[in-house]
Specification:
Blueprint: H1 12-15, H2 18-21, H3 29-36, H4 41-46, H5 66-72, H6 80-93, H7 96-106, H8 115-127, H9 131-139, H10 146-158, H11 162-174, H12 181-193, H13 197-209, H14 216-228, H15 232-241, H16 247-259, H17 263-275, H18 282-295, H19 298-310, H20 317-329, H21 333-342, H22 348-360, H23 364-376, H24 383-396, H25 399-411, H26 418-430, H27 434-442, H28 450-463, H29 466-479, H30 484-496, H31 500-513, E1 521-526, E2 529-534, H32 543-559, H33 575-582, H34 586-597, E3 604-608, H35 614-627, E4 631-634, E5 639-643, E6 646-647
Parallel strand pairs: 3-4
Antiparallel strand pairs: 1-2, 1-3, 4-5, 5-6
Helix pairs in contact: 6-7, 6-8, 8-9, 8-10, 9-10, 10-11, 10-12, 11-12, 12-13, 12-14, 13-14, 14-15, 14-16, 15-16, 16-17, 16-18, 17-18, 18-19, 18-20, 20-21, 20-22, 21-22, 22-23, 22-24, 23-24, 24-25, 24-26, 25-26, 26-27, 26-28, 27-28, 28-29, 28-30, 29-30, 30-31, 32-34, 32-35
Length: about 650
């Protein structure tokens, strides 16, 4: 036997195969190794020839991979199937560093021209998240096939590099290679990701031409593509035409309607899916919770949560994050906390979601405490994390802490973007430091956007600074002339200051520019029904009872100190009419309806599509004291929890 030759080493897992391998022991070492490596793959699973299958990526003392070291020293014959196994191992375990070593070694072997193995190299790099190396491996191939293109197209698609994916798809089709179902699936995902309806339709046509229109995998991808392009009619046509459906096709359609915030259709499809015998997945539940979150549909969200628990699904971070977001946006902090605490494994999105809940509910100290707890647990905050904690500081009036965390971003090598600057302007504005807020804007490294000036404008309205408010409004009009909100704020600032002619000028400018005010509305969810109210609404079946209830409430709160603030009513009518219109604001109608219909002892939850007016905010505080009930109001800015005559925002909103 030659010096340096290594005989294969058995471990316990391989002993069961030993009897079948006895005849090989009479062969020479070289013949022995060669013959052993030609065994069937199932034998290789138990015995790799030199190294056990589980130890294929084991390192040698010199830092190289042990298996490659054996090959280099001649103790083991290289084999194409061995490279296949090595690349598969790296792919499944995400071992990019080891994969690079094996790839380098493979390129020096006599198998370097094998297209199948080169395709596996592309797949390995793509699955390990290094698309640059995947592309390089693709470009270095002298011969490519359909699988080569598909591997790279899929890699780009899964990395959200949709443009690269689609360019490569077009190149493949131009080369005359026919895509398969996986090519189409990835290309359609990329078209949907770019919301390119034109590209998606072109791929759809090729699917039909190649005979894949009835393939369930391709059809599901078509549903998803059209849904992401906001073409729900086309998505439904494809879905309804599918001869066989699966969970993926149902999820694609449900997710499409969830993105449109169409909770009613989402719940309808969910019921149909279950009746059809399909088991909902985490993707299903995540989409439904997102739909419920968008409308604040607490009761429906709770019902779906109970359904998920009944199926025995664990609350993983993926679905748990949308679940706690749903509870937070529906006004139930208690349930959001429960979900967060019970997550099987938290990720950065979990922490950010809970921080967002605290911020929207005005719980600044809780948000700050959670942020520090997250850091202590070893999680690295990202840009969204800091945005959440800055928002919480803004809503709670934590001026110094807000700047402390803003400066901390640099410690984590994070560059603030425009949303962080908007939050700091909002923080300064709420604190009444308007001049400092203006100086901060002028010192920004970024060009101020409309959102920055809107934050300053809102602060000027709050603190009744007419001149600076007018200046901020002019900047907004230049950058975002079609938003009605700033026009209305400026008009109200002028009206509150007694400058009716200026207020009229702003209204006239709105009319001439075709800018229309978004109608205010409030809604209450009871059971599976949502009751919507607008100002002076008399369309509800209980209109008479609602009017009587509010008149009763108004009389009661007037006796304990409520005084109408008519500055929040239309300025161009007389005082009596202004007061009357004030009492018919949509949130007051919604509150009266809720008191009539929500069982005693249950918190009342109301949502509004724009910011709550100051008079309604004041009246809700008095009502909560009068009837001794908790009232939760969600507007576009935050949640207000009214209880015992006070609000959780401490009148700081």
């Amino acid at each position: 036997m030659k010096r340096g030759t290594r005989i294969p080493i058995f471990n316990r897992c391989a002993i069961s195969s030993f009897q079948n391998l006895k005849p090989l022991l009479s062969l020479s070492p070289r013949s022995y190794l060669s013959t052993l490596l030609s065994l069937q793959s199932e034998d290789l699973d138990q015995f790799s020839g030199v190294i056990q299958n589980n130890d294929l990526l084991k390192r040698a003392p010199n830092g190289n991979l042990l298996v490659l070291d054996h090959i280099d020293r001649g103790a083991m014959e290289p084999d194409a199937r061995l490279y296949v196994k090595l690349f598969k191992k790296c792919t499944y375990q995400g071992k990019l560093k080891e994969g690079k070593k094996i790839h380098t070694h493979f390129l020096t072997s006599r198998f370097q021209h094998y297209v199948v193995i080169r395709n596996m190299v592309i797949n390995m790099y793509a699955k390990c998240g290094d698309m640059e190396l995947a592309r390089r491996a693709f470009d270095e191939m002298t011969e490519r096939d359909m699988v080569s293109y598909t591997m790279l197209i899929t890699g780009y698609s899964q990395s959200n590099e949709f443009k690269e994916s689609l360019w490569l798809y077009l190149d493949m089709v131009t080369m005359g290679l026919q895509p398969n179902e996986f090519t189409f699936g990835s290309a359609l995902k990329s078209a949907g990701g770019m919301q390119s309806d034109a590209m998606g339709r072109g791929i759809h046509g090729t699917c039909v031409k190649c005979g894949y229109e009835e393939n369930v995998y391709v059809a599901s991808a078509l549903v998803d593509m059209y849904a992401r392009c906001n073409r729900m009619t086309e998505a439904e046509v494809i879905f309804d035409g599918m001869k066989s459906k699966n969970e993926v096709s149902w999820n694609a359609l449900i997710a499409g309607y969830a993105r449109k915030e169409d909770g009613h259709t989402v719940m309808q499809l969910f019921s149909e899916m279950k009746r059809g015998g399909f088991r909902p997945t985490h993707f299903t539940y995540s989409s439904i919770f997102a739909a419920c979150a968008s409308t604040g549909a607490l009761e429906q969200g709770k019902w779906v949560h109970a359904d998920m628990m009944k199926l025995g699904e664990p609350v993983t971070a993926f679905v748990g994050n949308t679940l706690l977001d749903m509870y937070g946006k529906a006004g139930s902090i208690k349930d959001a906390k429960k979900v967060f605490n019970r997550l099987v494994k938290k990720d950065i999105v979990s922490w950010n979601s809970m921080l967002t809940v605290y911020a929207h509910h005005g719980l600044g100290q809780e948000a700050v405490d959670l942020f520090e707890e997250m850091r202590a647990a070893g999680f690295q905050p990202n840009e969204i994390t800091f945005l959440c904690v800055l928002n919480a500081c803004s809503h709670a009036g934590f001026l110094d802490k807000g700047f402390y965390y803003f400066d901390m971003m640099r410690k984590y090598k994070l560059k603030p973007d425009i949303t962080h600057y908007v939050t700091i302007v909002d923080l300064l504005g709420r604190a009444g430091q308007l001049d400092r807020a203006e100086r901060f804007i002028r010192a920004m490294p970024n060009v101020p956007t409309a959102a920055v000036w809107k934050a300053l404008l809102g602060a000027c309205r709050m603190h009744k600074n007419t001149e600076l408010g007018a200046y901020a409004a002019e900047r907004v009009f230049e950058l975002d002339p079609h938003d009605s909100g700033p026009h209305m704020i400026l008009s109200n600032i002028y009206a509150s200051a007694g400058r009716s002619s200026d207020a009229a000028r702003v209204r006239k400018m709105m009319n001439e520019s075709g800018v229309k005010k978004e109608p205010a509305c409030s809604w209450v969810e009871i059971g599976n029904a949502v009751h919507v109210f607008v100002a002076n609404d008399d369309s509800h079946p209980q209109t008479e009872e609602i009017r009587k209830m509010w008149n009763k409430l108004r009389d009661g709160i007037t006796k304990i100190g409520y005084v109408p603030d008519t500055s929040h009513a239309l300025w161009f009518v007389d005082q009596e009419e202004r007061n009357e219109r004030l009492q018919n604001h949509c949130e007051k109608l919604a509150l009266s309806f809720a008191i009539l219909n929500v069982p005693v002892g249950t918190p009342i939850t109301i949502k509004k599509n724009i910011r709550v007016c100051g008079d309604c905010h004041a009246s809700f505080k008095f009502v909560s004291k009068l009837i001794d009930r908790e009232i939760i109001l969600r507007d576009t800015n935050r949640f207000h929890h009214f209880c015992g005559g006070s609000c959780s925002c401490n009148d700081y909103w």
